[in-house]
Amino acid sequence: MNVWKISLQNIKSKPLYTFLSVFTLALSVALLLGIQQLKSSFEHQIENNLAGIDLVVGAKGSPLQLVLASVLHIDNPTGNISYKEAKKIGKNPMIKTAVPISYGDNYNGYKIVGTTDEFFKLYNAELEKGTTTKKSLEVVIGATIAEKLKLSIGDTFLSSHGLVENEIDVHDDKFTVVGILKPTYQVIDRLIITNLESIWDVHDHDDHEEGEHNDHKKHTNFVEISASNNIENHDGHHHHNEETHADENHEKHTNFVEVSHTDHQEEDHDEHHETEHEDHKHESSEEDKEITSLLISFKNPVALLTMPRKINESTNMQAALPKYELDKLYNYTGIGFKTINWIAYLILIISGMIIFVSLYKMVKERSFDLALLRTYGASNFQLVKMMIYEGFLVVISAFIIGVLLVKIVLKFVFNLDQSGYQGILKTLSFGDIFSIGIVIVSFVLVAIGLSIYPIVTMNVSKILSNEK
């Protein structure tokens, strides 16, 4: 007796039950595997982007927001801090590396980050083409940006103010692409990297233009007021005698000479001050500058116990621990993962019930055929095997469909995303797939076990006599 052939014929004879069993079980498999894959990818990506950063120092505010903005680059910063004060913190002997970052502009929605060459080392990023930044307004772009925006070495672009793409507040200074990074599948793939001076120069230039505009408005108003006063003085001259007029002319001439002399002195002083300012420009350039945050790695984990509290209590800055804050983020997102997991298990239970009803109904409806098989020499074990094979054919079909379904859906969803996250999808390990497979097989075995009970307790003579 070919048990496999009989099992296949039984499945074909009840297409509706077979379809419902395979569909619900495949949906359950897809949900369980999909949630596990998303959770693993999410946790792996966050851990990967920590890049050995033990502490983030920034402006007072939400510590989670500071970590999301400075480490994962998915939120707005809490504010700016003094670069001078940040450098003092970075000189602490317990600190291994202290990498400053400054940002506030974007190009086509991709963040422009001013930093040092140490930033590349955090992510083990290597150049695919070109060089690192050597002077102001040079940039190195991530692999995702080069692919999405079709940028290459030597291309130039104008940045926009803010972290969201806009065409209104556009800066005048052009950035030049001098390097392209290899793919790292980390957040640096979606960043435009430049030096700190570029960020400062762009914003200082805007502030300078705004100041000149205000000075020009003041000068225009002054000229208008002076002209008005001259007209009034001219009308008043008709009521003075020649002697008074001569005295006034003499007084005006004297004042004119004094004013001219004063203007000349001020011009000389301004020229001298400008020269002096140029001489000390490099020396004082960083004194009044600001950055967004400081990314710190410690030589010894013991520093985690003392330095954050010291910074929070004795400075106007805050220190946030990325691992601690992201653990809180796991707790927030974990609720959603758990909810979908429970839904998947509920569907799995429903699928098991459908399989049980299908097999049990088949046993009851074909009890006479099964009794005849017994009279032809088939054992109870062979009949039970037939039920088990039928159940496992449904499980195998559903598992294959579920795995293919989750891969297609996740690939489709990630391809729709234009932020370059396609590479973060982590492949499930064999252990994850095996553990989920064990859970599903256990549910199906329970359903099969309940459905074959009538076969084990079958009374062949009674069934055959009743049928006659």
TrEMBL record:
Transmembrane region(s): 16-35, 342-360, 392-413, 433-456
Annotated ranges, domain MacB-like periplasmic core: 18-198
Record localization: Cell membrane
Gene Ontology CC entries for this record: plasma membrane
InterPro entries: ABC3_permease_C (IPR003838), MacB_PCD (IPR025857), Macrolide_Exporter_MacB (IPR050250)
Compositionally biased intervals (Basic and acidic residues): 261-284
Domain ABC3 transporter permease C-terminal: residue ranges: 343-459
Pfam family, one: MacB_PCD
GO molecular function, one term: transmembrane transporter activity
Membrane-protein topology: Multi-pass membrane protein
Annotated region (Disordered), positions in chain: 261-287
Keywords in alphabetical order: Cell membrane, Membrane, Transmembrane, Transmembrane helix
Similarity field: Belongs to the ABC-4 integral membrane protein family.
PANTHER family named among the record's database cross-references: ABC TRANSPORTER PERMEASE YTRF, MEMBRANE COMPONENT OF TRANSPORTER-RELATED
Name of the molecule in the record: Uncharacterized protein
